[in-house]
Specification:
Length: about 350
């Protein structure tokens, strides 16, 4: 007889997490950076690292493509969106549109690459006296063929504006759902508006991006998705002793039957359990990817390469090849064509 379990597949988590259409990519960076030096890089020896392409996690952290400050210096994108959720630490953003930002501590950046953008994402280590941990998710969400050449769009969701759903189980143990995209069925929390050309901006897409935190011993009934044909992936990445639909799971990517509610239980009385949920109705369109370009045909990839060689997607308006925004720990965003910074309200506490 066919299985009736709401768990369709379970895969252990590796460096890159498996995704389902309309998502293309999901990475979890969790770096224990040391204290910072005078140049906002790590105050630690770099010997033995492949500077410029260091994914070693030596001593618990990587330089990635930075050679002074860790991070990802300028690189192009076309045809999709990046959603960057920074749970701990700060990111310095700069792009070919002229936008700049320093964000983190729960903030989310949503960047529609559309017809083409170049951006850098650097991780300045601002504290010279103690460690500078950084934890983030970067998620790539595909754009429909009709919107792949839309104008690039830069969006910030400040942590204090991102809605949260709080649920206490019968024993009073709490689950908090952070709602980055997509309403939680049965809850009143209104998500912030996605960028205008995003697949997530279409009601029929049923796109949701949530993080879940279950207190020690908590139980939570994840409500069923409401969209027709929606697919759902639940990533368990922190905590131990978790059961999903009664089945014990370790740190894993769990494909769920999206149309069924699922009971999640944190069996640990000492540790919180944490999850990322990605869901959406598939685009169902051809995907042709060449590094940072994601289109529908080989011809469109060739056109993207030619356009980038010719225009550099607007060029690089910054004097620095890997800009960071100074030693002040403030968060801000500066949008193209404006001089004034947008500064979020301070976080509680």
């Amino acid at each position: 007889m066919p299985s009736t379990s709401p768990l369709l597949a379970v895969q252990p988590l590796g460096p890159l997490w498996p995704t389902l259409d309309p998502f293309l990519f999901c990475a979890h960076h969790d770096d224990a950076y040391p204290r910072g030096n005078a140049r906002m890089g790590p105050d630690a020896p770099l010997a033995g690292r492949q500077i410029g392409q260091d994914f070693s996690r030596k001593d618990g952290w990587s330089m990635y493509h930075g050679d002074v400050v860790p991070g990802f210096p300028p690189h192009p994108h076309r045809g999709f969106e990046t959603v960057t959720i920074v749970r701990t630490g700060l990111i310095d953003h700069a792009d070919s549109l002229g936008a700049a930002a320093r964000f983190g501590q729960g903030d989310v950046q949503w960047l529609t690459a559309g017809r083409g953008v170049v951006h850098s994402e650097m991780f300045p280590l601002l504290d010279p006296a103690q460690p500078n941990p950084l934890e983030l998710f970067q998620i790539w969400l595909n754009l429909p063929a009709a919107d792949k050449m839309a104008p690039p769009h830069f969006t910030m969701f400040w942590a204090g504006d991102v809605p949260r759903v709080v649920h206490d189980d019968d024993a009073g143990r709490r689950t908090e759902v952070t709602v980055i995209a997509g309403r939680v069925p049965g809850e009143a929390a209104e998500p912030l508006a996605p960028p205008p050309h995003s697949w997530a901006a279409r009601p029929e897409s049923d796109v949701a991006i949530w993080t879940l935190r279950l207190a020690p011993g908590a139980r939570y009934r994840l409500p069923a998705a409401t969209g027709e044909g929606t697919r759902r992936m639940l990533y368990h990445f922190a905590g131990e002793g978790v059961r999903v639909a009664g089945e014990a799971v370790g740190h894993a990517a769990i494909e769920l039957r999206a149309g069924e509610a699922v009971e999640i239980a944190n069996g640990s009385d000492a540790q919180a359990a944490e999850f990322l949920l990605l869901q959406g109705r598939p685009l169902g369109e051809p995907v042709v990817q060449y590094g940072p370009f994601v289109m529908n045909t080989e011809a469109e990839i060739h056109a993207a390469l030619a356009d980038y060689r010719r225009t550099e997607f607007g060029g690089w308006p910054w004097g620095d090849g890997a800009p960071v925004h100074g030693p002040e720990p403030r968060r801000f965003a500066r949008r193209p064509g404006t001089e004034a910074d947008e500064v979020p309200a301070p976080l509680p506490g």
